[in-house]
Amino acid sequence: MIRRIVALFSCALGKHTPRKRSIWHDNIDARSRCLGCGAPLRRDMHGRWHRFNSRRDGNIHRQPHPHFDR
Questions:
Q1: Distance between CA atoms of residues 65 and 8, nearest Å
Q2: pLDDT per residue as tens digits for the range 11-61
Q3: CA-to-CA distance for 4 and 18, rounded, in angstroms?
């Protein structure tokens, strides 16, 4: 609970915290959701997490989440 509150505060500052248990690879980047606000995230080549932007980051080679069809 405390970790989520701290993560939500970090979101307001533009620094998102990924949910460690839900990281997956989409064939291009590591992806997750933010622990605080639930926003979709992607990890860049330097290991920093950024909010996923479908216009900027969209690519036909990206695979959907492995549990997408459930």
A1: 24
A2: 888 888 899 888 999 989 999 999 889 999 999 889 999 999 888 888 888
A3: 11
CA angle 54, 59, 65 (to 5 degrees): 75
Instruction: Strands of 10-58 (E only): list them.
Output: 24-25, 30-33, 40-43, 49-51
List C-alpha distances in Å: 13 to 3, 8, 36, 52, 64.
Answer: 16, 9, 12, 16, 29
- Strands 30-33 and 24-25, bridge-based pairing: antiparallel
The two three-digit tokens of residue 18, written as one number? 């990924």
| CB neighbourhood size of 42 (10 A) | 20
Is 15 within 8 Å of 34 (Cβ atoms)? no
Six-digit token string for 42:
């992607």
